[in-house]
Amino acid sequence: MAKLSHIKDNLWVLGGNLFNAGIGFLSFMFLAHMLPVDEFGVWLLYVAAFTFMEMVRAGFIYQALVKYFASNSKKLVQKVITGSSWWIGLISTALFSGLIALSGWAFAEPIASKNFTLFFQWYPIVIWVTLPSNMGLWISHSKQRYVRMVIIQLCITGGFGLFILFNYNRSLDLTTILIAHTAVRAIAGIFTLISGWDGIRYIGHVSKRYVKKLVYFGQYSLFSMLGTNLLKSTDIFLIGIFIGPAAVALYQFPLKIIELAEVPLRSFATTAFPRIAKWTEEKKYVIATQFIQKQVLVFITLATPFCLIGMIWAEFFMVLIGKAKYAASAPIFQILLIYVIFLPIDRFIGIALDSLNRPQINTLKIGIMVVINIIGDYLVLSAGGSLVMVAGVTLVNIAIGMGFGWYKIYKTLPIHDVRQLNAKQLFSLR
Fold first, then answer.
1. Rounded to an integer, what distance in angstroms lies between the CA atom of residue 274 and that of residue 142?
2. What is the pLDDT of residues 322-372, one digit of tens each?
3. Which among 47, 211, 332, 420 would be 20 to 30 A from 32, CA to CA?
4. Is 160 within 8 Å of 200 (Cβ atoms)?
5. Torsion angle of alpha carbons 146, 151, 152, 157, nearest 10°?
6. One-character DSSP codes across 297-326
7. How many CB atoms lie within 10 A of CB 129?
8. Pick from 123, 153, 124: which is nearest to 136 by CA?
């Protein structure tokens, strides 16, 4: 039963992530057709700033909430963790809302010149609207109620997608689109409040001790999230500075395709984290080690044939998807496919570090990778190196990151030692 339940959880999360990615892409495409280019650009700036701030707030709460909730089986402690998380959410929301509103008032002219007025006018209110639905998502993850997560995500992504679809042939202004973007989150938030999925009824169960623990863990999770985003963006920024926008397009095109491979990995990591956190808290290190080994080996086994096919017919796929102008991206695509094979190892090492209550080591690992990536890209590009060499730097930094992370966990979780992992165990996921 445990095995079937875990498989069902994985399928729910994977299906939800794939649906959300598909609806998000279609909404993006429809809006690109509906809006003038300059208005669409302003909308993308708002969405980019919105996504960044939501990520910053999540960094303070999300991982820490899941880690401590999942690793404690006592109901009273879980209520305290939930209530403490709500207070951190309220305080951080008030802080960010006030700072953004004040900045929008104090720097109105330069903000308007950079087309960020929409964000600074609306987000101080929107950030309060999104809090209940976000808490509902995070607490559902902590409780491993993945169907609830999917339902909340469908309310948000599906609701906005339906609004865009039904109004595709109408003339919409940015304010109307922004209201719809906010309204679906408000509806999802009201639903989580009514259903009790957001855990606000435990807001009175707050503990100074757990607030400190959650904030301590959360600060490192935030830096890890920011570092992960820097890893993806520094290549693009430096290529743009040294070579230009055409080279950015050639590099970004295969990179966007590679990001699709992260959807199933991200989905399975979502269900794995609370389980691994619980086992490490209970000092069941053998079970945690074997589970990580199984997850990594299954992913590598499934990904390798697709990666080999992609390497052999790289140019064909680039031309098929992006037409002849992206044929030059084929060698970059081949290098990045090797990166895909390493991704499961790197991702689960990060999960292991967080589960072992070593978020500072995970942050340091990502920081080392960012520094290596920036220095490597700079040396390659300043010397007139190719985009293929930039992709090669990505392989170097992930290899060093994996080596550093493995060194920090191998005594407790020897994931390199697969001698006791037989075929029966491999296909019998706990």
1. 7
2. 778 888 899 999 999 999 999 999 999 999 999 999 999 999 999 999 999
3. 332
4. no
5. 120
6. HHHHHHHHHHHHHHHHTHHHHHHHHH-GGG
7. 19
8. 153
